[in-house]
Design a protein that fits this description.
- By secondary structure, this protein is α/β, with parallel strands linked by helices.
- It has 14 helices and 5 strands.
- It has 2 domains: about 5-30 and about 210-280, no CATH class; about 40-205, 3-Layer(aba) Sandwich (Rossmann fold), CATH 3.40.50.300.
- The chain has helices at about 5, 20-30, 40-50, 70-85, 100-105, 105-120, 130-140, 155-170, 185-190, 195-200, 210-225, 235-245, 250-265, 275-280, and strands at about 60-65, 90-95, 140-145, 180-185, 200-205.
- It has a 5-stranded parallel beta sheet with strand order 2-3-4-1-5, sandwiched between helices.
- Helix 11 (about 210-225) crosses helix 12 and helix 12 packs across helix 13 (about 250-265).
- The radius of gyration is 22 Å and the shape is elongated.
- It starts with a helix and ends in a 13-residue tail after the last helix.
Length: about 290
């Protein structure tokens, strides 16, 4: 039996990893690998359609929010990878992750968005509006993705109002950018501070994984990324029930537990993730002979 048949439970692109060294398998388990699921697939499909809408008086906008640990950052990175300028997409997006330096005041926020859209760090908008529009058109930019929109609440109220006004300008003619804003539940407060821009947004929440059928579907896909010799049992009902009870349905905690269980399965020679390994994964496994070089 060749590798393709013997390890057919592993995704073909990752199948060769099963025969690699322990250190390489350990690293592969902790790689950031996108696993699609219904809510994310729907949001990505909406974005794909919005990017095809002709530039008009005002562009549609999307707000994605959730509690911490529900996959917002992974979705932000997936959007950037799929539609970013480097992706080669005809209608592309530019991504901006807000940090403290971008939210101190309105001027810094404007400068950060302009720099992201033009790749020019010192372009001042007040004298270069044409240069901004030209960069957007020449690069086929149809959307601006803003991660951690909730950090805008660190601004003074007057700066928040100015920032919202700037976002309204970007989503209106002549720029016509689709705004895709991502953050914690607090980012709703930013959008709701202006009823006019609030009406432009379609609202999506990444909820806790409490639906067993949906979680089992996600876990079934996730287990295909794990370079283990035998097929795991993540798709079974008892595993889904156990993970929901242990993690409260928080995606980050689910993924962390599964990864630890996969490492435990290598350590124990078990080579698959099941309830036994998931229970061991309450503690961090230490693999013998795994040292930094």
């Amino acid at each position: 039996m060749d590798m393709q048949e013997e390890f057919s439970h592993v995704l073909e692109a990752r199948r060769a990893l099963v025969s690699e060294s322990v250190i390489k398998r350990y690293q592969a388990i902790y790689e950031d690998v996108w696993v699609n699921y219904p809510t994310a697939a729907y949001i990505l499909a909406v974005i794909d359609q919005f990017l095809q809408i002709p530039i008009g008086i005002q562009a549609p906008c999307i707000l994605v929010h959730s509690n911490p640990g529900m996959g917002k950052t992974a979705l932000f990175q997936k959007i950037d990878k799929t539609y970013g300028i480097a992706s080669g997409a005809k209608s592309c997006v530019v991504s901006l992750s807000l940090q403290d330096k971008e939210t101190d005041n309105h001027r810094k926020f404007v400068d950060s968005t302009v720099a992201a859209l033009t790749s020019i760090g010192n372009l001042r908008l007040d004298s270069n509006e044409y240069a901004l529009l030209q960069a957007i058109r020449m690069n086929g930019i149809r959307a601006l993705v803003i991660d951690e929109l909730n950090d805008m609440l660190l601004c003074r109220p007057t700066d928040i109002r100015k920032n919202i006004k700037w976002l309204k300008e970007l989503s209106a003619w002549p720029y016509g950018l689709v705004l895709i804003c991502i953050g914690t539940g607090d980012c709703q407060n930013v959008v709701e501070s202006d009823p006019q821009i609030q009406r432009r947004f379609d609202n999506f929440e990444l909820k806790r994984w409490l639906d067993k059928a949906e979680l089992r579907s996600f876990l079934n896909s996730f287990q295909g990324t794990l370079p283990l010799r035998f097929k795991s049992e993540l798709h079974t009902a008892p595993v889904a029930t156990y993970l929901i009870n242990e993690t409260g349905g928080i995606l980050d905690s689910i993924v962390k537990r599964v990864r630890r269980a996969a490492i435990w399965s290598i350590k124990e020679g078990h080579e698959k993730v099941d309830l036994e390994m998931l229970k061991l994964a309450k503690t961090i496994p230490i693999l013998d002979g795994l040292h930094c070089e």
